């Protein structure tokens, strides 16, 4: 993978969590639809009053007949024989909505099947940023973390795969599961250090999964974090009763999640 940054730092007026979702989705797709040995490139350029971010890959490409529809909900880039690689086909649709809400555009380019793909996001630059804010906006250095195994469980494949990629880029080793039974099986075999667990899952609920993990000697004390859309008091009470370490409501911004993972890991140690 190669990264080509812009000639100078630029800022956009946007929601960090939503823009993170956009680019993590594009990177996830680039990985998903590229075979072993493929190449992914991210290039950032200035174009007038906009910043342009292009995510390119050498993967399976997009059929010309799909280019105009690729951002429609439930449309997938892969042909039927590649369908096993895909999620639910909603990631690009959501990415377009988020980019447009930021006053930008997103476009897909491909020379055809087997010719790779390029997704280009164009966002307006924030022009009136005081120098003092530039200094304050510099990201705090993040200390490298030892590799830790994180099991992510969610039946939304696009969401869980994007989050897994972000965690992998932050130094975590990840595995994913998409239903409760699969989660228990993978957890038993893989022995994760931390579990991020949705509640509303097929076959077994997150509550049942957490209780199953807690019933095992290896899972008695590991952090199990509820990451769910259910934020009402009854859900929080049930997660506490089921043995969850803490309860987070989606969407949670990634910097906050990374901080929480570091905290629960330290507490567990």
Short description:
With 269 residues, this protein is an alpha/beta fold.
Q: Tell me the number of structural domains.
A: 2
Gyration radius over CA: 20 Å
Structural class call reads alpha/beta
Order of helices and strands: EHEEHEEHEHEHEHEHEH
In CATH, the homologous superfamily of the largest domain goes by the name Histidine kinase-like ATPase, C-terminal domain
Which CATH class of the largest domain is shown? Answer: Alpha Beta
Parts with pLDDT < 50 across at least 5 consecutive residues: 79-89, 130-138
CATH architecture of the largest domain: 2-Layer Sandwich
- Give the overall form: globular
- Determine the strand fraction and express it as a percent band: 15-25%
DSSP helix fraction: 25-40%
What can be said about the biggest beta sheet? 5 strands, mixed
Helical segment count: 8
Mean pLDDT: 83
CATH fold category name of the largest domain: Heat Shock Protein 90
Oligomer: single chain
Number of strands: 10
End-to-end Cα distance, whole Å, is 34 Å
Largest beta sheet: strand ordering = 1-2-3-5-4
Report on the structure:
This protein has eight helices and ten strands. The chain is α/β, with parallel strands linked by helices. It has two domains: 2-127, 2-Layer Sandwich (Heat Shock Protein 90); 149-268, Response regulator (Rossmann fold, 3-Layer(aba) Sandwich). The strands form two sheets. A five-stranded mixed β-sheet has the order 1-2-3-5-4. A five-stranded parallel β-sheet has the order 7-6-8-9-10, with helices on both faces. α5 runs parallel beside α6. The radius of gyration is 20 Å and the shape is globular.
């Amino acid at each position: 993978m190669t990264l080509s940054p812009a000639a100078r730092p630029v800022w956009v007026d946007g929601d960090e969590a939503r823009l993170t979702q956009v680019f993590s989705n594009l990177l996830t797709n680039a990985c998903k639809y590229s075979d072993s040995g493929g190449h992914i490139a991210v290039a950032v350029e200035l174009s007038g009053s906009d910043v342009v971010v292009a995510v390119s890959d050498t993967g399976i490409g997009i059929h010309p007949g799909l280019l105009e529809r690729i951002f429609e909900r439930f449309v997938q880039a892969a042909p039927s024989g590649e369908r096993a690689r895909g999620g639910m086909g909603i990631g690009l649709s959501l990415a377009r909505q988020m980019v447009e809400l930021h006053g930008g555009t997103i476009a897909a380019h491909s020379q055809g099947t087997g010719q790779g793909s390029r997704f280009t996001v164009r966002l307006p630059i924030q022009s009136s940023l005081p120098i003092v804010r530039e200094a304050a906006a510099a990201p705090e250095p993040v200390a490298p973390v030892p590799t830790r195994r994180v099991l992510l469980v969610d039946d939304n494949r696009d969401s869980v795969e994007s989050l897994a990629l972000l965690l992998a880029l932050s130094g975590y080793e990840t595995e994913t599961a998409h239903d409760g039974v699969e989660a228990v099986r993978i957890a038993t075999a893989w022995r994760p250090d931390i579990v991020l667990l949705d509640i509303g899952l097929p076959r077994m609920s997150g509550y049942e999964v957490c209780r199953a993990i807690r019933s095992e000697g290896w899972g008695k004390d590991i952090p199990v974090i509820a990451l769910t859309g259910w934020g009402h008091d009854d859900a929080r009470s049930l997660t506490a009763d089921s043995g969850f370490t803490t309860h987070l409501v989606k969407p949670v911004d990634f910097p906050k999640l990374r901080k929480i993972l570091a905290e629960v890991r330290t507490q567990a140690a």
